[in-house]
Structure formats: C-alpha cells, structure tokens
Design brief:
The structure is a homotetramer. The first copy, chain A, has 13 helices and 14 strands. By secondary structure, chain A is α/β, with parallel strands linked by helices. Chain A folds into 2 domains: about 160 residues, NAD(P)-binding Rossmann-like Domain (Rossmann fold, 3-Layer(aba) Sandwich); about 160 residues, Dihydrodipicolinate Reductase, domain 2, CATH 3.30.360. In chain A, helix 1 packs across helix 13, helix 7 crosses helix 13 and helix 8 runs parallel beside helix 10. The first copy, chain A, is globular. At the A-B interface, strand 8, strand 9, strand 10, strand 11 and strand 14 of A face strand 8, strand 9, strand 10, strand 11 and strand 14 of B.
C-alpha cells in the first residue's frame, strides 16, 4: 500500500446513492478521502449533518467548480446528480481531463428513441451526440474491457442491472423465444425512489402496501432492450414498490426456443459468469431472496424450468443502492484502475 | 330484526382465518353467537386466551362432536381446518342435515388430477366422489345461483380468488390469446401461511425480504385452471411472500386475441361485475394497491393496455383473510340465506 | 330507525384523521352522509380521488362557508384542521348555532401557560377566552356529563388519551407518590405525524428505525397535566416514532404512596371504568399490545406491580386514528346526542 | 500481514449471533477461516445451507470435540450456545489451554443471587465458582485491561450493553440520585429473541405491533446492576419487542444529585469515552436513532437535560447482533490479542 492514494470527488453525496458511495469510499484502501461537492450554493455544511450515521466523521461539502476539481487534483468524478445536471456537467469535466462515473440515467442509452423519455435539452447537441456514442455502459460483467479505458462510464439503473444480469447470458446465447414475450415483474424497496419526501414515499402510504407503477412506461426499459438486444414489443417490464427500504427482486418469465434441461441453462449462466466477482448463480432448487444480497454488492440469479423444458422463470436480486448504484460505481472504478473488483466492497 | 337468530358453529377458530371469521360473525346482525369448536381434546379454553384482541368477550371453545352440533341446533358449520380433516368430517356433518362452508382446500377441485396435489385418503371413496361433484365453488361472483341451494360450499383459496376475479370475465368472453401464455405473478402477506410458527414465518426471515416460492407448483393452480378454463400449459403462477401481515396483489400478464381499446376491456369487466357488492373495477389510469382493500371484503381489479392494443396487464388486490377467506365465507352465507351480500361485512 | 338522519359536516377530510372520521360516519346508522368541506378554494374534487380506498363512493368536497353549513342544515361540524384555523373558525360557527367537535389542539387547554406552546393569535381575545373556558375536553370517560350539553368539544390528543386514560383513575384516587416522579415513555405509529410528506415521515427514514423526539417539549404535555392534576415538574413525557402506520403504546412508571396489592390497584381501575364502552382493563399477567386495539376504538390498559408493592408500571394502547382521534370524535357525538356510545364504532 | 493467521473456532454458528460472528471473521485480516462446530451430531452440513447469504462460500460444520480443537490448533473458541451448554463446556475447554469468548449469559454475573435466574446446575460447583470469579465481563470500555489477559471473557447481553454504556459514566462519577429511581425503557428488534421459530416471533404477531415483556424480570437486569453499582430497588428495566429485525434503543430516565448544565454531563461522557473506538457521544440537540448504528459496531449515546438541571434522559442505541453480540465479541478478541479494536469491524 505504498504511494499516494487515488483522488476522487463526489457531487451529490446527500442523496441515498451518493451517501452510500461516500461511505464505501471511506473504507476503500486505495482511495484518498473524497472531495464532497454540492451544487447549490446554499446547502453545503457537512455530510454528517444530513446523516448522523456519520457522527464522528468530518465530511465538509464544498461548492462545485471546475477550478476546485483541478486544484485538488481530482482524477475521477462521481456524479450522483439529476439527469439534466449530468448532461450539462459531463462535457465540461471531461474537457479537464477528469474521468467520470455517472450514476444518473443521462448517458446510459445509445438509441435516441430510448433517450427521448428523459427529454434532455443539451447545450451543445453535437458534443452530446459524441459523448452518447463514447459513453460506456457500466455493467462490468458485460463491458469490462471497454470500461477499463473509458473516460465516461454510465452506471446502470438499479432495476436494469438486476434484469440485464439475468437476461444477458440467455439473450447472447440466442436461446430465448422472444416472439413469445418476456415478462419482467420487478419489485423494489423505497430508497430507489430517492431521498426527497413525496406523497408516494410517505411511510403511511408505503407500509403494509404493495403497488405497481410506471406500467408500460418505466425509464429503465431502454437499458434493458439495448443491453439484451430484445425488441420493445417483446418485453413487458412492470416495477412494484415494496414496503422495505432497500433491495430489488425481479421475477422474469420467458420461453426457450428449444426444449432444454436445467443443466443446459445452468451451464450458460455458469460459463457467462465464470470468475465474476459480484454475480452469484444459485444452484438447482434454490432461488435468491432479497435478504441474501442486501448490504452486499452481489447480484444473485437463480431459475426454475417447467417440466416442458421450455418455460423458464428467472429470479434476480440485488441491493439497489449497492450493485444497483454505489457499489457498482465503485466496482467500475476498480475496473477502470485495474484494481481487484472486490476492493472496498467486501 | 324479528325472529330467532341463525345458528352457526365454527371449527378451527384459533387459526387466523377462523379467528377473523368469528370476529366478523359477532357483528353480523342476523347471527346468534357462533358455537366455537376445537378438535383436539386438550386445547379448548376460550378464544380470547389466544387472541387478547377479544379481551372483554367470553368465547369458550368446546370439543367437536356431531351430538353437540345437533343439540345446539346448528344450521351451518364453518370449517377452518386442515384439508384432511375436512375430507373426513364433511360427509358425517352433511348427513345430519347441516350445511357447510369449508374454508380449506378439500372440496374446491372438480378434476381428480388437480386434487392429486393434496393426496387425500378418503374413508369412503364413493361418498367422497359424490361430494366432490356436489360441492359448489364458493365464489359468488361466478356461482351465485348454485351457492344459494348448496349443501357444501368450498370457499376459494386466497390467491385463487384474486386471480380468478381478474381473469374470469376475459376468459368467459373468450378474448384471451391463451396460447401466448398467461403469467400470474402474485404477492401475499404472511397471514396466508397460517398461525403455526415455522422458520419461513419467523419475523427475521420475512422482514426486509421478498421471496418467490412454490414455483411451478402451488396448490391454488388447479382452482385457477378449473374456474377460468385455461390450460395448465398456458398458465404460470408464481407466489411471493411479502413482508406484511395481510393482503394480496396479483399482477397478471396476457395477450388479447384481437386488438382492443381500453374501453373494450373495461366494458367486459363492468358488465361482468355489474351489481357485484364486493368487486370494484378501477377506472382508467388507476390501479389497485394492497392498502385499498385491506380490512375490507373487496376484491379490486384494474388494468392497463399496451399501445399495441393486445398486451394487457391486470392488477388484482384483496385482503387474504377477508375476501380471500373469512369475508368470502360470510358472503357465501349471506348468499345461501338469501340475505344482502353486504350484511355483516361493512 | 324512523325519522330524518342527523346532519353533519367535516372540514379537513383529506387528512388521515378526517378521512378516518368520514369513513366511520358513512357506516353510522343515525347519520346522513356528511357534507365534506375543504378550506382552500383550489383543492376540492372528491375524497375518493385522495383515497382510492373509497373507490365506488362519491364524496365530493365543497368550499367551506357559513352559508353552506346553514343551507344544508348542518347540526354538528367536525373540524380536522390546523390548530390556528380552528381558533379562527370556531367562534363564527358557534354563533350560527352549530355545535362543534374539534379534532385539533386549539381548545383543549384551560391554562394559558399550557396554551402558550401553540402561540395562538386570536382575532378577538375576549371571545377566545370565553370559549377556552367553555370548551369541554372530549374524553367521555372523564367528562361525560359536560360533553352531553357542550357546544364545543375539544377532542383530545392521541398520546394524551392513552396517557390520561391510564393515569386518571390513580390520580383521582390520590394514590400516586407524584413527588417521586411519573415517567411516560410513549411510542406512536407514523400516521400521528399527519399526511403531509416530510423528511421525518419518509419511508426510508422511519422503516427499521426508532427515534425519540420532542424530548421535554411535546405539546400534549399540557393536556396530561390538566387532566390528571399532576405537576409539570413531576412528569416526564417522551414520545418515540415507531416504524408502523398506526397505534400507540405508552409505558408509564410511577410509585404508589402506600404499599399495595395488585388487587388494590385493579379495583381502582375496574371501578373507574365500570360500564365504560371503550376502555378495557387487562387482567393480571397480561398487558395490552398495539395489535390488540388497532382498528378498534378501545383504549386498553394493563399494569404490573413490583414486589415492593409500590413501583407500578402501566401499559396503555390505542389506535391513534380511532380512540386517539376520529373514533373518539364519533364517541363524543354519540354522547352529545344521547346515543349508545358504541354506535357506529363496532 | 506477515506470519500465520490466528486460529479460532465457533460453536453455534447457525444462530443469528453465531452467523453474524462467522461472517465478520471471514473479513478479519488477522484471522484464519474459523473452524465451525456443531453440537448435535445430526445437524452438521454447511453454514451456507442455513444462510444462502453465504452462497459461494464453503463453510462446513464439524462435530464439536476437544480433540478437534486441539488437532486444529485452535487458540480461541467462541461459544454462541445455550447458557447451560456453556456452563458445561467452558471448564473442559479452558483446561486445554484454549481461551474462550462466550456469547451466552453463562459467565456474566458475579453475584450468585443474580445468577439464580438462570438456574444453572453445574457438574462441579467449586470449579464453576472459581470460573465465575475469574471470568471477565467483556465490555472493553469498562474492563479493557482485564480483558487483555483473560482466559474467559463473558460477552455482555445486548440490552445490558446499551444500558451500561449509557449509565456507567454517570454511575462511576457518582452523580446519579439513585434513590429517586432509574427507569430504563428499552426496545429491541426481533433477532434478539433468537432464530428458533415461536409464536412470539411469528411475523404476524410482531409486525404492526409493539409489546412490553419480562416486566420486572428480565435476565439482563443483573448485569446492569453489577456493572453500574446501582441497587435493584432503584432500577426498573422494561424491554419491548419492536417490529424490526435488529437494533436496540434504550431510553433512560434519572435524576442528578446536583443541578447541572448540559456541558457538565457531556464532559463526563466525553472524558469517559475519550479514545473509545466504538462508543459515540452525540452532541447537544441530537439523539441517537436505531438507524444510525445498525450494521455497525457502534454504541451511540445522547442525552437531554430538563430545565431544572436535574432530570436527565439518556438515549442509547446499538445493533443487537454487533455491539450487542458478535461485534463486541470480535472487539474483545482484538483487545485480547492486542490488535486495533477496529480491526475487522469497519
């Protein structure tokens, strides 16, 4: 552990994902304490004022500026900011030679039609277009090589991660009878909805409840389609709000082209994720539950095959703030820096 | 409110459904206080000892016997007992001229192949076969006329109720493209698993968790198939255990044969449930949530149609102990006695 | 049930207590459907738009005015409004000859020093002073006779109800060694904090958590002191926020003046609450839990006495939206109208 | 990180505390993978079969024997076993020259009268008496020096830790007016009740509920008295069961002998815990909440003083499985081995 520690900054540490990221970074052996940045001039103070969990730490937040990033020698900026702000800041920051891992949805989508749901208004459309093309989708299990050298990593959505990890091995193996339809019924804890209080996140509205939302229209759909190659008309994705703080479970229903055995399917997964630090494939007869991966960076995947050898149910779980956000961001940093992917995440 | 009150008995009041039923019956204006019966000779005592919610009531339980039923003039027996016990007792009780509403799964299934999952061993197979044929599936919205004159009403399963209420109108209208598959992703609170403590119902195992279970093998599947007429190979039903005490939400995915409008589908539901006291069809743009029907006898149904006019998502909610068990049992009693279906359930 | 039904109105039905009250009133056999009133001109619409639980009902809200109250023949107005608004409206409404049950804290306190925590600015101080003197504290178990003829009933606070019901019998019997101190450690579900979303009521902040708040400064303290006659310096009241939607449990610690037996203490309670419809005294060896009274109008009280015969622990539970708010309001209406106190509350 | 790793064993890894301990030990840089032991010959298998959270690990359990401990070179044994078993095994294991950290209540109490609540029947009373005298109460903040050289460390109870950490500084400073009484109202998550399913830990009984239990009789009382020096007649300790999986909050009410300022009290705490790795004293105006310390090894303490300068409320929080059990056990190991107390606990 000789030599200087790596210098990073976080913009947006007061949100749930930004806080989780900061907390992880404080324990990462190769990182200097991150520079914490706030956008609005009035809301600085210190992170421990927002999160008494950090009592005993001193984590002052400073106003964001390019000058500050440079004067502190920041080499990597994490953005845990609204999508629009990320569209605005990324071009400027990259120009300073600073690499970026962006936790927002701003740079995840390659296809303009998919991006349309966000309604971005870019200051310079041609710059934005180049960066849309350049940005690397930050799912290391799919794009490890590109991430290593990326300037801009678009950290995936939480639902999208859980679903793509489950579907990608089968999609790439070409075994899904996609015309028959792929149904994704996903359920998430409330921290995925962010820290801002709304009627929807009021305790009394969520507790003892379950509700479906964004039916036929959730913004993570584009990521799922682009990363699996499935067509929009073949995929239905329905998120539900669970009365728990964190964790996602996605139940995925599809039909295989060929009659297969459990071992056939298992082989596809085991080979795809051989050596993967943060994906666990469950054995026959057991399925992941939210509790198994909460407070870890794992995405767990299990499955069950009907007697007909065709109808397949996939179950995928993760912690939406870790593998679904901050943990994956740190995993991406590890990949970009050539460190062990487990570093700082155990 | 002239005349004598109707005389009933409950066997199995200490379980969650039996307790809920008893509590409802105490407030039903047309009913005498139910005779409470226990099967095991050792566990009598009083119901308020098991449920301090009933402090101030006096609800002694007595050992079950046919003589007792007769001597008390019981006209209707509710069974909230294990399936096997219900198979054993029903023939004897009916012979005494006492009608039965059975909350177990014993008499719900017409098809022997579906019944096989329960593995019943009947004392007299020919009597059992006759009663299997005679028993009426106690979903009043589907079988009101038969229930009126039934001697034996098989009260539906909780999951089954939520799913059949959503699917039956479309199935009977013949609009489901069933070959394309019907996916039922259902989520239930823990009281559905019964009062007996097990590792699966330990608070620490359920809280902050979600898990799929009985994948490709839940016993309510037979009810769903028989009541909707769908084929086993076309339906996938996956239950999940929610970290809440009560409530079920079923999300159902299917494809319509013909391109349709929202209004087309809504019309089918509104006509099917015109005048129904305990089914509510939600308007366009709103979907039921578990909170809306918990502590009521309603089954709520809503839906959303994809832009293609074919892919349909149904959401159905109910309280598993009310419309999913005890409330429906009382609704069936109301039907059998020719009373208002809302009586005692508001 | 001959004759016209009694005419009421509710101002503030969109809050949790107002909604609960409205829902109860719809089932009260002696009441016409309440006139629902909203204060702000922009937010009318219908109650079912705010609470899909009411799907199938039609409950339009109309702008509040004295004219409307008169033209509809309203005989009793329920206020489920902010304290300040209640201070403003009550004098005007009473002048129209309409009686009022006020669920806010506006008129509960007789002592100006206690009222000071609310910081009321009254339009007419002398009118306010007269009404402060006239208002009856709406705990029927203590003030039944005065409530019968009251024009203005101040419905008690939720914490205050649970604590006063437990302490009043002992305080009035003069058996508390108050100089030794009375410690009240109370815990409440989140609906007590109201429907407006705040950081404090965000699901993620409350779930899996417990916190003390308003230490040495909760506004219900004044009610407790005035109704029990205890001195401020002898009582400590600490509320805590529980991760549940509804329910209060208060644990109260005190010392008796004289060495006593359990039976001595029980006698005081049983005599005090003899015939009370909505207070249940638990037997030796059992203590109330929140689950026992949630969704009922009961306040449950139990206690345990140390071997020294002096140190006494009281446990008191209720549903903060029922006996702690809307249920008690309806109980007060029943008293005011000379109806059975259980009417509409079973 | 040169040299061989330290060799340990855990008996009782399948319980909640034992599992948590094992999980922590796998990440402790100075420890070899622990030898996992099971008592009953039939229940071996592997820990990951009991906790799918450990999918991907291989943690076989072996039958406990002294021979096995010796043959594996175990230097420290952790007991996460029933109290009685710990009484039986400890003398035998110590004789082998193996040190012990015992998570049960077996060896915590010095006073025979306090120990009586456990009803131990020791095989050799004189050996047991010597060990009762020798055992060190494993709260490092109070007994660090003795722990360093102890052969047998009795890891404190979860409630006891939270309460003693809050009371000890004041008790040792002699500022408590104990004759006036000390009231401890404590609330714990369900994992404190153990993994065995019972009616009391059934999800439906705990969820949406709060209950007091073991009133005037909880077994941790003896630890509190012995470690603070307070007298039994001056302390009331009432535990409550919270509807959350983990975490304890204790609210403690006492009176100071002398009129004091907040700063006076704060000074006592800050000096007492100067340099403590795992106790955090909260600043004026803020109080610990359960969320702040869950999933950490911290015990957080805060307080509020009444205007009279005498009545003091202490609030203390910790994670019952970490600082309240497994985390503290590992902290004790760190102390015993002369390692940094934070090692393996961040």
């Amino acid at each position: 552990m000789s030599g200087a520690k790596f210098k990073t900054a976080v913009l947006g540490a007061t949100g749930y994902a930004g806080f989780e990221l900061t907390r992880l970074m404080l324990r990462h052996a190769k990182l200097a304490r991150p520079v914490l940045l706030a956008r609005e001039s009035g809301s600085h103070g210190a992170l421990e004022d927002f999160y008494p969990q950090l009592t005993g730490e001193h984590l002052p937040m400073e106003p964001f500026s390019l000058e500050l990033l440079k004067s502190r020698g920041v080499e990597m900026l994490f953005l845990a900011t609204p999508h629009e702000l990320s569209r605005e800041l990324v071009p400027q920051v990259l120009e300073q030679g600073i690499r970026i891992i962006d936790l927002s949805g701003a740079w995840r989508l390659k296809c303009a039609a998919n991006r349309a749901v966000y309604g971005f208004v870019d200051p310079d459309a041609s710059v934005a277009a180049k960066l849309d093309a350049e940005a690397v989708y930050g799912l290391p299990e799919l794009h490890r090589e590109q991430i290593k050298s990326a300037r801009l990593v678009a950290n995936p959505g939480c639902y999208a991660t859980s679903i793509i990890v489950a579907l990608a091995p089968l999609a790439r193996a070409g075994v899904i009878d996609s015309a028959h339809g792929v149904v994704v019924d996903a359920k998430s804890g409330v921290s995925g909805a962010g820290k801002k209080p709304t009627q929807k996140t009021h305790f009394v509205e969520v507790a003892e409840n379950l509700s479906a939302y964004s039916v036929f229209g959730h913004r993570h759909t584009g990521e799922i389609l682009e990363q699996t190659g499935l067509r929009a008309e073949d995929v239905i994705f329905t998120p539900h709000l669970l009365p728990i703080p964190r964790g996602i479970l996605s139940t995925i229903y599809l039909r295989l082209k060929q009659r297969s055995t459990f071992a056939d399917v298992e082989k596809i997964f085991r080979e795809f994720y051989a050596g993967a630090a943060w994906v666990r494939v469950f054995a026959a007869g057991s399925l992941p539950q939210i509790q198994h991966s909460v407070n870890t960076n794992f995405c767990d995947v299990g499955f069950a095959l009907a007697e007909d050898g065709k109808r397949l149910i996939l179950v995928s779980c993760l912690d939406n703030l870790l593998k679904g956000a901050a943990g994956q961001a740190l995993q991406n940093l590890n990949v970009m820096q050539g460190w062990n992917e487990r570093e700082g995440l155990n």
